[in-house]
Design a protein that fits this description.
alpha/beta, 5-stranded parallel sheet, 14 strands
Amino acid sequence: MPKKPILLVVEDDEGLQRQLRWAYEDYEVVIAGDRKTAIDALRANEPAVVTLDLGLPPDPDGTSEGFAILETILSLKPDTKVIVASGHGAHEGALRAVAMGAYDYYHKPVDFDELGLIVKRAFELASLEQENARMAAEQAGEGNPGGFITADPVVLKALKTIQRVAVTDVSVLLLGASGTGKEVLARGLHQASPRREGHFVAINCAAIPDTLLEAELFGYEKGAFTGAVRTAEGKIELAQGGTLFLDEIGDVPLSLQVKLLRFLQERVIERIGGRKAIEVDTRIVAATHQDLPAMIADGRFREDLYYRLAEIVVTIPPLADRPGDAVLIARQQIKRYARELNPQLRGFTPEAIAALDAWSWPGNVRELENRLKRAAIMAEGKMVTADDLDLSPGREDGGFLNLRAAREQADRTAITRAVARAEGNISNAAKLLGISRPTLYDLLKQYGISA
Protein backbone atom coordinates (compact mmCIF):
# COMPACT_ATOMS: atom_id res chain seq x y z
CA MET A 1 0.00 0.00 0.00
CA PRO A 2 1.53 3.36 -1.02
CA LYS A 3 2.53 5.67 1.80
CA LYS A 4 0.19 8.60 2.36
CA PRO A 5 1.62 12.10 1.84
CA ILE A 6 2.23 13.99 5.08
CA LEU A 7 0.10 17.07 5.85
CA LEU A 8 1.25 19.22 8.78
CA VAL A 9 -1.65 21.03 10.47
CA VAL A 10 -0.62 23.89 12.77
CA GLU A 11 -3.75 24.63 14.81
CA ASP A 12 -4.30 25.19 18.55
CA ASP A 13 -8.08 24.50 18.64
CA GLU A 14 -8.36 20.85 19.79
CA GLY A 15 -11.87 20.44 18.38
CA LEU A 16 -10.77 21.71 14.96
CA GLN A 17 -7.68 19.49 15.16
CA ARG A 18 -9.94 16.41 15.42
CA GLN A 19 -12.15 17.62 12.57
CA LEU A 20 -9.16 18.26 10.30
CA ARG A 21 -7.67 14.87 11.06
CA TRP A 22 -11.00 13.24 10.18
CA ALA A 23 -11.48 15.37 7.04
CA TYR A 24 -8.09 14.47 5.54
CA GLU A 25 -8.11 10.69 5.62
CA ASP A 26 -6.18 10.62 2.31
CA TYR A 27 -3.18 12.17 4.09
CA GLU A 28 -1.06 11.32 7.10
CA VAL A 29 -2.03 14.28 9.29
CA VAL A 30 0.54 15.55 11.80
CA ILE A 31 -0.83 18.04 14.36
CA ALA A 32 1.09 20.89 16.02
CA GLY A 33 -0.37 23.48 18.38
CA ASP A 34 2.58 25.84 18.88
CA ARG A 35 5.75 27.07 17.21
CA LYS A 36 8.21 24.62 18.76
CA THR A 37 6.03 21.58 18.00
CA ALA A 38 5.43 22.83 14.45
CA ILE A 39 9.12 23.35 13.67
CA ASP A 40 10.08 20.02 15.24
CA ALA A 41 7.42 18.31 13.09
CA LEU A 42 8.67 20.12 10.00
CA ARG A 43 12.22 18.91 10.58
CA ALA A 44 11.18 15.35 11.39
CA ASN A 45 8.60 14.81 8.64
CA GLU A 46 9.51 17.30 5.86
CA PRO A 47 5.87 17.73 4.79
CA ALA A 48 5.24 19.10 1.33
CA VAL A 49 2.12 20.97 2.52
CA VAL A 50 1.32 22.82 5.77
CA THR A 51 -1.92 24.45 6.90
CA LEU A 52 -1.15 27.23 9.36
CA ASP A 53 -3.49 29.18 11.65
CA LEU A 54 -1.98 32.64 12.04
CA GLY A 55 -3.61 33.13 15.46
CA LEU A 56 -1.61 30.92 17.82
CA PRO A 57 -0.49 31.08 21.48
CA PRO A 58 1.04 32.98 23.11
CA ASP A 59 -0.71 35.55 20.85
CA PRO A 60 -4.03 33.85 19.97
CA ASP A 61 -5.77 37.18 19.35
CA GLY A 62 -3.09 38.41 16.96
CA THR A 63 -0.98 37.05 14.11
CA SER A 64 2.60 37.65 15.28
CA GLU A 65 3.21 34.02 16.26
CA GLY A 66 1.73 32.70 13.01
CA PHE A 67 3.93 34.96 10.91
CA ALA A 68 7.00 33.92 12.94
CA ILE A 69 6.21 30.27 12.20
CA LEU A 70 5.63 31.01 8.51
CA GLU A 71 8.98 32.80 8.25
CA THR A 72 10.78 29.90 9.94
CA ILE A 73 9.11 27.26 7.75
CA LEU A 74 10.03 29.09 4.53
CA SER A 75 13.56 29.64 5.81
CA LEU A 76 14.10 25.96 6.65
CA LYS A 77 12.28 24.46 3.66
CA PRO A 78 11.50 27.13 1.04
CA ASP A 79 9.63 24.74 -1.26
CA THR A 80 6.95 24.00 1.40
CA LYS A 81 3.40 24.89 0.31
CA VAL A 82 1.99 26.80 3.29
CA ILE A 83 -1.76 27.50 3.37
CA VAL A 84 -2.55 30.13 6.00
CA ALA A 85 -5.82 30.76 7.84
CA SER A 86 -7.08 33.54 10.04
CA GLY A 87 -10.20 33.53 12.17
CA HIS A 88 -10.16 37.26 12.76
CA GLY A 89 -11.24 38.46 9.33
CA ALA A 90 -7.77 39.86 8.75
CA HIS A 91 -7.71 39.93 4.95
CA GLU A 92 -4.59 42.11 5.07
CA GLY A 93 -2.82 39.43 7.11
CA ALA A 94 -3.61 36.77 4.54
CA LEU A 95 -2.29 38.96 1.73
CA ARG A 96 0.86 39.69 3.75
CA ALA A 97 1.38 35.95 4.26
CA VAL A 98 1.14 35.30 0.51
CA ALA A 99 3.58 38.15 -0.12
CA MET A 100 6.00 36.46 2.29
CA GLY A 101 5.81 33.22 0.29
CA ALA A 102 2.69 31.37 1.48
CA TYR A 103 1.08 29.23 -1.22
CA ASP A 104 -2.55 30.23 -0.52
CA TYR A 105 -4.96 31.31 2.23
CA TYR A 106 -8.50 30.69 3.52
CA HIS A 107 -10.75 32.27 6.15
CA LYS A 108 -12.38 30.69 9.16
CA PRO A 109 -14.89 29.22 9.82
CA VAL A 110 -13.44 26.35 7.80
CA ASP A 111 -15.18 25.10 4.69
CA PHE A 112 -13.64 21.62 4.51
CA ASP A 113 -14.55 21.08 0.85
CA GLU A 114 -12.96 24.37 -0.19
CA LEU A 115 -9.87 23.82 1.95
CA GLY A 116 -9.62 20.23 0.69
CA LEU A 117 -9.36 21.47 -2.91
CA ILE A 118 -6.62 23.96 -1.95
CA VAL A 119 -4.67 21.25 -0.14
CA LYS A 120 -5.05 18.83 -3.06
CA ARG A 121 -3.76 21.41 -5.57
CA ALA A 122 -0.83 22.20 -3.26
CA PHE A 123 0.19 18.53 -3.11
CA GLU A 124 -0.13 18.21 -6.91
CA LEU A 125 2.11 21.26 -7.45
CA ALA A 126 4.67 19.97 -4.91
CA SER A 127 4.74 16.61 -6.72
CA LEU A 128 5.35 18.29 -10.08
CA GLU A 129 8.16 20.41 -8.64
CA GLN A 130 9.83 17.34 -7.10
CA GLU A 131 9.63 15.49 -10.42
CA ASN A 132 11.17 18.45 -12.24
CA ALA A 133 13.98 18.58 -9.67
CA ARG A 134 14.59 14.85 -10.08
CA MET A 135 14.78 15.15 -13.88
CA ALA A 136 17.12 18.12 -13.57
CA ALA A 137 19.41 16.11 -11.28
CA GLU A 138 19.47 13.21 -13.74
CA GLN A 139 20.50 15.59 -16.50
CA ALA A 140 23.30 17.19 -14.46
CA GLY A 141 25.94 18.48 -16.83
CA GLU A 142 23.78 18.09 -19.94
CA GLY A 143 22.75 21.74 -19.89
CA ASN A 144 26.24 23.04 -19.11
CA PRO A 145 28.50 24.40 -21.86
CA GLY A 146 30.28 21.45 -23.44
CA GLY A 147 28.51 19.09 -21.01
CA PHE A 148 30.93 20.26 -18.30
CA ILE A 149 30.39 18.07 -15.21
CA THR A 150 30.60 19.81 -11.85
CA ALA A 151 28.84 20.41 -8.55
CA ASP A 152 31.27 23.12 -7.42
CA PRO A 153 29.63 26.54 -6.75
CA VAL A 154 32.59 28.47 -8.19
CA VAL A 155 32.58 26.48 -11.44
CA LEU A 156 28.78 26.64 -11.70
CA LYS A 157 29.06 30.44 -11.49
CA ALA A 158 31.70 30.38 -14.24
CA LEU A 159 29.42 28.24 -16.42
CA LYS A 160 26.61 30.77 -16.00
CA THR A 161 29.00 33.47 -17.20
CA ILE A 162 29.90 31.38 -20.25
CA GLN A 163 26.22 30.87 -21.08
CA ARG A 164 25.49 34.57 -20.71
CA VAL A 165 28.32 35.81 -22.95
CA ALA A 166 27.94 33.04 -25.57
CA VAL A 167 25.29 35.01 -27.46
CA THR A 168 27.60 38.03 -27.77
CA ASP A 169 30.79 38.49 -29.78
CA VAL A 170 33.05 39.60 -26.93
CA SER A 171 36.48 38.00 -26.56
CA VAL A 172 36.76 35.58 -23.63
CA LEU A 173 39.90 34.68 -21.68
CA LEU A 174 39.84 31.35 -19.81
CA LEU A 175 42.28 31.01 -16.91
CA GLY A 176 43.19 27.76 -15.22
CA ALA A 177 45.82 25.08 -14.80
CA SER A 178 46.51 22.60 -17.56
CA GLY A 179 43.89 19.88 -17.76
CA THR A 180 41.06 21.75 -16.02
CA GLY A 181 38.80 21.71 -19.08
CA LYS A 182 39.42 25.08 -20.72
CA GLU A 183 39.05 23.72 -24.26
CA VAL A 184 35.85 21.90 -23.26
CA LEU A 185 34.42 25.25 -22.11
CA ALA A 186 35.62 26.99 -25.27
CA ARG A 187 33.86 24.40 -27.42
CA GLY A 188 30.76 24.70 -25.25
CA LEU A 189 30.77 28.47 -25.68
CA HIS A 190 31.02 28.03 -29.46
CA GLN A 191 28.11 25.55 -29.52
CA ALA A 192 25.96 27.91 -27.45
CA SER A 193 26.71 30.90 -29.70
CA PRO A 194 25.12 32.09 -32.96
CA ARG A 195 28.39 30.99 -34.63
CA ARG A 196 27.75 27.29 -33.94
CA GLU A 197 27.32 26.58 -37.69
CA GLY A 198 30.84 27.87 -38.32
CA HIS A 199 34.10 26.06 -37.57
CA PHE A 200 35.66 25.77 -34.12
CA VAL A 201 39.40 26.03 -34.78
CA ALA A 202 41.86 25.38 -31.94
CA ILE A 203 45.59 26.00 -31.86
CA ASN A 204 47.99 25.35 -28.97
CA CYS A 205 50.41 28.26 -29.11
CA ALA A 206 52.88 26.47 -26.79
CA ALA A 207 53.12 23.38 -28.99
CA ILE A 208 54.31 25.17 -32.14
CA PRO A 209 57.83 26.64 -32.52
CA ASP A 210 57.93 30.44 -32.64
CA THR A 211 59.25 30.36 -36.21
CA LEU A 212 56.22 28.41 -37.42
CA LEU A 213 53.48 29.92 -35.25
CA GLU A 214 53.00 32.99 -37.45
CA ALA A 215 52.50 30.82 -40.54
CA GLU A 216 50.05 28.60 -38.62
CA LEU A 217 47.99 31.58 -37.51
CA PHE A 218 48.10 33.88 -40.54
CA GLY A 219 48.86 31.50 -43.43
CA TYR A 220 51.29 32.21 -46.28
CA GLU A 221 51.47 32.78 -50.03
CA LYS A 222 53.19 30.45 -52.44
CA GLY A 223 56.91 31.24 -52.56
CA ALA A 224 56.86 33.31 -49.37
CA PHE A 225 59.73 31.23 -47.98
CA THR A 226 61.68 28.11 -48.83
CA GLY A 227 59.27 25.18 -48.85
CA ALA A 228 56.16 27.31 -49.45
CA VAL A 229 55.16 25.44 -52.60
CA ARG A 230 51.51 26.45 -52.32
CA THR A 231 49.30 29.09 -50.75
CA ALA A 232 47.94 28.04 -47.36
CA GLU A 233 45.23 29.58 -45.22
CA GLY A 234 46.05 30.12 -41.54
CA LYS A 235 43.98 29.13 -38.53
CA ILE A 236 42.45 32.59 -38.31
CA GLU A 237 41.06 32.36 -41.84
CA LEU A 238 39.84 28.82 -41.29
CA ALA A 239 37.77 30.10 -38.36
CA GLN A 240 35.85 32.53 -40.61
CA GLY A 241 32.29 32.79 -39.28
CA GLY A 242 33.16 30.58 -36.30
CA THR A 243 35.39 30.58 -33.22
CA LEU A 244 39.19 30.62 -32.91
CA PHE A 245 40.55 29.10 -29.70
CA LEU A 246 44.06 30.29 -28.83
CA ASP A 247 45.27 27.90 -26.14
CA GLU A 248 48.30 28.92 -24.04
CA ILE A 249 48.18 32.48 -25.36
CA GLY A 250 50.88 33.41 -22.85
CA ASP A 251 53.44 31.55 -24.99
CA VAL A 252 52.99 33.78 -28.06
CA PRO A 253 56.27 35.69 -28.64
CA LEU A 254 56.23 39.48 -28.35
CA SER A 255 57.00 39.92 -32.04
CA LEU A 256 53.85 38.03 -32.99
CA GLN A 257 51.75 39.68 -30.30
CA VAL A 258 51.90 42.93 -32.30
CA LYS A 259 50.46 41.29 -35.40
CA LEU A 260 47.81 39.49 -33.37
CA LEU A 261 46.81 42.80 -31.74
CA ARG A 262 46.38 44.43 -35.18
CA PHE A 263 44.05 41.62 -36.23
CA LEU A 264 41.96 41.98 -33.07
CA GLN A 265 41.68 45.74 -33.60
CA GLU A 266 40.97 45.80 -37.34
CA ARG A 267 39.74 42.25 -38.05
CA VAL A 268 41.98 41.99 -41.12
CA ILE A 269 45.07 39.86 -41.73
CA GLU A 270 47.85 39.58 -44.29
CA ARG A 271 49.35 36.20 -45.11
CA ILE A 272 53.12 35.88 -44.95
CA GLY A 273 54.45 37.04 -48.33
CA GLY A 274 51.11 38.60 -49.24
CA ARG A 275 50.11 42.23 -49.78
CA LYS A 276 46.34 41.84 -49.74
CA ALA A 277 44.35 42.63 -46.61
CA ILE A 278 41.87 39.83 -45.89
CA GLU A 279 38.83 40.56 -43.73
CA VAL A 280 38.05 37.82 -41.20
CA ASP A 281 34.97 37.61 -38.98
CA THR A 282 35.79 35.23 -36.14
CA ARG A 283 35.23 35.16 -32.41
CA ILE A 284 38.35 34.86 -30.23
CA VAL A 285 38.53 32.68 -27.12
CA ALA A 286 41.96 32.51 -25.48
CA ALA A 287 43.26 30.45 -22.57
CA THR A 288 46.37 30.19 -20.42
CA HIS A 289 47.66 28.76 -17.17
CA GLN A 290 50.11 31.65 -16.78
CA ASP A 291 49.78 34.85 -14.75
CA LEU A 292 49.36 37.38 -17.55
CA PRO A 293 49.37 40.51 -15.31
CA ALA A 294 52.74 39.37 -13.92
CA MET A 295 54.00 38.80 -17.48
CA ILE A 296 52.83 42.31 -18.40
CA ALA A 297 54.78 43.73 -15.45
CA ASP A 298 57.86 41.81 -16.63
CA GLY A 299 57.46 43.09 -20.18
CA ARG A 300 56.75 39.60 -21.60
CA PHE A 301 53.14 40.25 -22.62
CA ARG A 302 51.57 43.33 -24.16
CA GLU A 303 49.06 45.09 -21.95
CA ASP A 304 47.00 46.33 -24.91
CA LEU A 305 46.72 42.78 -26.25
CA TYR A 306 45.64 41.55 -22.83
CA TYR A 307 42.72 43.98 -22.69
CA ARG A 308 41.66 43.00 -26.21
CA LEU A 309 41.60 39.32 -25.23
CA ALA A 310 40.22 39.71 -21.70
CA GLU A 311 36.91 41.47 -22.32
CA ILE A 312 35.43 38.68 -20.19
CA VAL A 313 37.67 36.61 -17.87
CA VAL A 314 36.56 33.20 -16.57
CA THR A 315 38.68 31.27 -14.05
CA ILE A 316 38.42 27.48 -13.70
CA PRO A 317 39.74 26.09 -10.38
CA PRO A 318 41.89 22.93 -10.33
CA LEU A 319 40.19 19.62 -9.65
CA ALA A 320 41.73 19.46 -6.16
CA ASP A 321 39.70 22.58 -5.23
CA ARG A 322 36.43 21.08 -6.49
CA PRO A 323 35.51 18.42 -3.87
CA GLY A 324 33.25 15.72 -5.25
CA ASP A 325 33.83 16.58 -8.92
CA ALA A 326 36.38 13.79 -9.44
CA VAL A 327 33.77 11.20 -8.47
CA LEU A 328 31.06 12.82 -10.64
CA ILE A 329 33.36 12.89 -13.67
CA ALA A 330 34.62 9.36 -13.02
CA ARG A 331 31.11 7.91 -12.90
CA GLN A 332 30.29 9.49 -16.26
CA GLN A 333 33.59 8.67 -17.96
CA ILE A 334 33.74 5.02 -16.87
CA LYS A 335 30.48 4.39 -18.74
CA ARG A 336 32.11 5.61 -21.95
CA TYR A 337 35.28 3.59 -21.40
CA ALA A 338 33.17 0.52 -20.57
CA ARG A 339 31.42 0.82 -23.94
CA GLU A 340 34.69 1.34 -25.79
CA LEU A 341 37.14 -0.88 -23.91
CA ASN A 342 35.56 -3.25 -21.37
CA PRO A 343 31.81 -3.95 -21.63
CA GLN A 344 31.74 -5.95 -18.38
CA LEU A 345 32.46 -2.88 -16.22
CA ARG A 346 29.58 -1.67 -14.03
CA GLY A 347 31.18 0.94 -11.79
CA PHE A 348 33.56 1.38 -8.83
CA THR A 349 34.12 -0.39 -5.54
CA PRO A 350 33.63 1.75 -2.38
CA GLU A 351 37.42 1.75 -1.90
CA ALA A 352 37.91 3.07 -5.43
CA ILE A 353 35.40 5.87 -4.81
CA ALA A 354 37.23 6.78 -1.61
CA ALA A 355 40.56 6.80 -3.46
CA LEU A 356 39.17 9.00 -6.24
CA ASP A 357 37.77 11.36 -3.65
CA ALA A 358 40.98 11.62 -1.62
CA TRP A 359 43.51 12.04 -4.44
CA SER A 360 44.85 15.58 -4.99
CA TRP A 361 44.82 15.32 -8.84
CA PRO A 362 47.93 17.36 -9.73
CA GLY A 363 47.21 16.61 -13.40
CA ASN A 364 43.55 17.64 -13.07
CA VAL A 365 40.89 16.11 -15.35
CA ARG A 366 43.52 14.95 -17.85
CA GLU A 367 45.15 12.81 -15.16
CA LEU A 368 41.75 11.50 -14.05
CA GLU A 369 40.82 10.44 -17.58
CA ASN A 370 44.22 8.79 -18.02
CA ARG A 371 43.82 6.71 -14.85
CA LEU A 372 40.23 5.79 -15.71
CA LYS A 373 41.16 4.63 -19.20
CA ARG A 374 44.01 2.52 -17.87
CA ALA A 375 41.78 1.09 -15.12
CA ALA A 376 39.09 0.18 -17.66
CA ILE A 377 41.63 -1.83 -19.61
CA MET A 378 43.26 -3.50 -16.59
CA ALA A 379 40.17 -4.26 -14.48
CA GLU A 380 39.56 -8.00 -14.17
CA GLY A 381 36.14 -7.83 -12.50
CA LYS A 382 32.95 -5.88 -13.03
CA MET A 383 33.96 -3.13 -10.60
CA VAL A 384 37.01 -0.87 -10.87
CA THR A 385 39.15 -1.14 -7.71
CA ALA A 386 41.58 1.30 -6.12
CA ASP A 387 44.42 -0.95 -7.32
CA ASP A 388 43.13 -0.71 -10.90
CA LEU A 389 43.34 3.08 -10.56
CA ASP A 390 46.84 2.84 -9.04
CA LEU A 391 45.93 5.42 -6.40
CA SER A 392 47.30 5.79 -2.90
CA PRO A 393 45.62 7.96 -0.25
CA GLY A 394 46.90 11.38 0.67
CA ARG A 395 45.68 14.95 0.46
CA GLU A 396 47.34 17.97 2.03
CA ASP A 397 45.44 20.08 4.55
CA GLY A 398 43.91 23.39 3.52
CA GLY A 399 46.36 25.61 5.42
CA PHE A 400 43.57 27.56 7.17
CA LEU A 401 44.38 30.41 9.53
CA ASN A 402 41.60 29.72 12.05
CA LEU A 403 39.43 26.88 13.27
CA ARG A 404 36.15 28.40 12.05
CA ALA A 405 37.37 28.61 8.45
CA ALA A 406 38.79 25.10 8.64
CA ARG A 407 35.51 23.72 9.98
CA GLU A 408 33.46 25.46 7.31
CA GLN A 409 35.69 24.16 4.51
CA ALA A 410 35.64 20.67 6.03
CA ASP A 411 31.82 20.81 6.09
CA ARG A 412 31.66 21.96 2.46
CA THR A 413 34.10 19.29 1.33
CA ALA A 414 32.41 16.46 3.21
CA ILE A 415 28.91 17.46 2.06
CA THR A 416 29.87 17.89 -1.60
CA ARG A 417 31.69 14.56 -1.64
CA ALA A 418 28.81 12.76 0.06
CA VAL A 419 26.27 14.16 -2.41
CA ALA A 420 28.54 13.15 -5.29
CA ARG A 421 29.01 9.61 -3.93
CA ALA A 422 25.25 9.29 -3.38
CA GLU A 423 24.64 10.53 -6.94
CA GLY A 424 22.42 13.36 -5.71
CA ASN A 425 20.26 11.22 -3.38
CA ILE A 426 19.89 13.38 -0.26
CA SER A 427 18.76 10.53 2.00
CA ASN A 428 21.82 8.42 1.12
CA ALA A 429 24.13 11.44 1.40
CA ALA A 430 22.76 12.15 4.89
CA LYS A 431 23.42 8.53 5.89
CA LEU A 432 27.02 8.79 4.65
CA LEU A 433 27.48 11.93 6.73
CA GLY A 434 25.74 10.46 9.79
CA ILE A 435 23.15 13.25 10.00
CA SER A 436 19.43 13.61 9.34
CA ARG A 437 17.98 14.74 6.01
CA PRO A 438 16.63 18.05 7.46
CA THR A 439 20.07 18.80 8.91
CA LEU A 440 21.67 18.16 5.52
CA TYR A 441 19.08 20.40 3.84
CA ASP A 442 19.95 23.15 6.33
CA LEU A 443 23.67 22.77 5.60
CA LEU A 444 23.12 22.77 1.82
CA LYS A 445 21.19 26.01 2.14
CA GLN A 446 23.70 27.52 4.56
CA TYR A 447 26.68 26.88 2.31
CA GLY A 448 24.87 27.46 -1.01
CA ILE A 449 25.68 23.96 -2.28
CA SER A 450 23.58 22.59 -5.15
CA ALA A 451 22.36 19.02 -4.70
